[in-house]
Amino acid sequence: MAESLAAGNSSVALPRAECPTLIRDATAAWLAFRATTRPNRNDQKPVLMARKLTEWADAKGFLFLKDITPERAMDFRASLPFRTEDSSSLKVHWSVVCGFFSWAAFTYKAESPIPTTKGGANPQFQIHYRQRKVAVADAQEITRVLRACSGKVYLFAALMRYSGMAVADAVRFGTGSRIQDANLLTGQRQKTEEHFRVRVPVSLAAKLKPGMFSEGASFYRVHLRHAFKVAKVSMTPHGFRHFRVSEWRAAGVSFEDISEFVGTSPLMLRQTYAHLTTQGEQRLDEVQRRADEHLTKGVRLRNV
Fold first, then answer.
1. Which residues fall within 8 angstroms of residue 12, CB to CB, at 6 or more apart?
2. Which residues, other chains included, contact 156 with Cβ-Cβ below 8 Å and sequence gap of 6+?
3. I need a labelling partner for 281 at 20 to 30 A (CA). Which of 25, 131, 216, 287 fits?
4. Quick one: angle between helices 217-231 and 151-163, nearest 10?
């Protein structure tokens, strides 16, 4: 075999375990595998993380899977832009990367560079976060905030209020999203590359122009914080998104459908807004209890 290779005989292949596998080829094969085994899942996280891994590896000069050591894997994790501490964002996206390396370890007979954290092992590599309980402004507070806004800041706030978009996506209107069919807003989230499609009021859609919020996210955050202060409402710009999701949930819209509206997985929506479901159920229980006190007062069932 060695003589054949020395002679340039391309018909002789190295055993799979000895074949150096390009990171780019491995991620492409993994995505193809997922597309075959999970054809109905519209999840952009694997595509996003495969791209981030290959871009990071290219920038570092790492070509092959074997170049990714545990230390380098952690260096890659540290480069990711996802929040932790009070958000599961990093944990969720990192689990996708771990899934890729587990698949690669099995497929290419290689060892995964991701240190295991099962059973409390390698605590320094564990991702810890404390999920904050989302406090949602009520309809009157949202109305006061919108009244405290004017001009383009008002249109920006209205866009967030009715679409549930994040600030980073709203400022990209016209490049990251567009209007179809009079008032159907479609696009792709900048952070996760998940697709979203949501309808906004026709009167609002008519006023939106591509690139009209080019001042950037910081500009609108500053002006919105001023509006919150004027309206005497304790919330952040992301509160518009929380309000819209809670509004849909109160109307009986499922997490799966809301996921399509806002470009966030149903799992993450449940983790963030599960307490809203509990609050809603408790409110309905109380409404029914009070109604039954009146409707069933004096009712006596006959003996059977």
1. 1, 4, 5
2. 149, 170, 171, 213, 220, 224
3. 131
4. 90
Neighbours of 103 (CB within 10 A): 16
- Give the pair of three-digit tokens for residue 241: 């998104």
H helices within the chain, ranges in order? Answer: 2-6, 23-37, 45-60, 70-79, 89-107, 139-147, 151-163, 167-170, 202-205, 217-231, 239-250, 255-262, 266-295
pLDDT at residue 8 greater than cutoff 50: no
In this prediction the pTM is 0.58
Tokens representing residue 153 in the block: 């800041």
Closest listed residue to residue 46, CA positions, set 34, 61, 58, 64: 34
Provide DSSP, 75-104.
HHHHH-----BS-SHHHHHHHHHHHHHHHH
CATH topology of domain 139-286: hpI Integrase; Chain A (1.10.443)
For the segment 130-175, what is each residue's pLDDT rounded down to a tens digit?
656 667 888 999 999 999 999 999 999 999 999 999 898 999 888 8
Q: Is the pLDDT of residue 266 over 90?
A: no
Please report, for the chain, the start and end positions of each structural domain, with discontinuous segments joined by +. 18-125, 139-286
Q: Is the pLDDT at 72 greater than 90, yes or no?
A: yes
Calculate the average pLDDT of the chain: 82
Residue 272 C-alpha from the chain's centroid: 11
Structure tokens at 188: 């792709």
Same fold for the pair 18-125 and 139-286: no
The fold of 18-125 is DNA polymerase; domain 1 (1.10.150)
3-state secondary structure of 192: coil
Q: Specify the pLDDT at position 82.
A: 79
